[in-house]
Design brief:
Helix content: 25-40%
Number of helices: 9
Shape: elongated
Number of strands: 14
Order of helices and strands: HEHEHEEEHEHEHEHEHEHEEEE
Distance between the termini: 40 Å
Strand content: 15-25%
Structural class: alpha/beta
């Protein structure tokens, strides 16, 4: 069992401390222990008006990252020690960007502008550009409709950079393995992870059992079809014979052949759709974006057929 720095007793003592010393309604507080793996501070603060964050010493840029993400107006209630005693202080994140965390402690972050409804399909302007050409946000929304991600899901995303970022935000108690074969794309992926303050996305450079060993077993994979698609599906259905699969392709021949490939690896109930998006331009004419096929299905251990 994972050893916890913040036990139930310690968490309760910090709750009592802030209940006595702040005007905050603790019934509405979201608790977040970032000493555990895969916990994301920035998306959590963006989505909740009050977050009680438990952190250990040695986090030198936590407030700078929050300020850089547009959370500079948030209030932080804290004290100077590692125990929930003594004077409580309050300051804006923008005034704390040069301050790190000197001791393991709890701090209460108030975001009056929090928006607790997540809108699927973030605007592409939110992402770091780098080497990547992102799929349109409307098409991404349809992809997430097919993925049906839960907050505790463990996901593998292959060559789908913006999909990996949004999946990491949605599955805030799960994890994402982001597979990027190109080194420039990996660098852009890492830049986006840093930009969004995500700690539950792990970037790897290829798909095989050895590379994926040590990560949580994915229950879902999204992949952009390529020459290595069959090898990727073979590997992932072996790791999890009941994995759900969503494939994106712009190639009709690939889309037409995907149900047969699914059948080979025990992926049932294949569904193929095509998504078309047109935008009205300033010249009052419609400009059509690339129209991908999206093929989805779920593997069944009883139906897996190997060569």
């Amino acid at each position: 069992m994972e050893q916890q720095l913040f036990t139930n007793e310690i968490i309760l003592s910090w709750l009592q401390y802030f209940a006595k010393n702040t005007p905050i309604d603790l019934e509405k507080v979201k608790m977040l222990d970032i000493t555990r793996k895969n916990k994301n501070v920035i998306p959590t603060v963006e989505a909740h008006k009050a977050v009680l964050v438990f952190t250990e010493a040695g986090n030198p840029d936590i407030f700078y990252r929050m300020w850089n993400a547009g959370l500079g107006d948030c209030d932080v209630w804290y004290n100077e020690g590692s125990e929930p005693v003594g004077e409580v202080k309050c300051d804006k994140v923008c005034n704390m960007i040069n301050r790190g965390i000197n001791a393991s402690a709890g701090m209460l972050i108030i975001n009056a502008n929090a928006c607790n409804t997540y809108k699927i399909g973030m605007d592409n302007q939110n992402f770091r550009r780098g080497s990547i050409h992102y799929v349109g946000s409307e098409i991404r929304s349809v992809i997430f409709n097919k993925m049906q991600i839960g907050r505790q899901d463990d996901i593998c995303v292959i060559s789908g950079e913006s999909i990996a970022i949004e999946a990491g935000i949605i599955a805030n108690e799960g994890s994402v393995i982001a597979v990027e074969y190109n080194k420039d794309d990996r660098a852009t992926m890492e830049d986006n992870i840093d930009h969004f303050g995500l700690h539950n996305i792990h970037v790897v450079d290829h798909v095989d059992e050895e590379t994926l060993q040590g990560y949580a077993t994915p229950s879902l994979v999204f992949l952009v079809a390529s020459a290595s698609t069959e090898q990727e599906i073979a590997c992932l259905t072996k790791i999890n014979p009941q994995i759900s699969v969503v494939v994106y392709t712009l190639d009709f021949a690939v889309a037409a052949g995907m149900p047969k490939l699914f059948e080979k690896y025990g992926i049932r109930d294949a569904e193929t759709i095509q998504v078309s998006v047109s935008r009205l331009t300033a010249k009052n004419s419609f400009e059509q974006e690339p129209a991908p096929w999206i093929i989805s299905g779920k593997a069944d251990v009883a139906d897996v057929i190997r060569k």
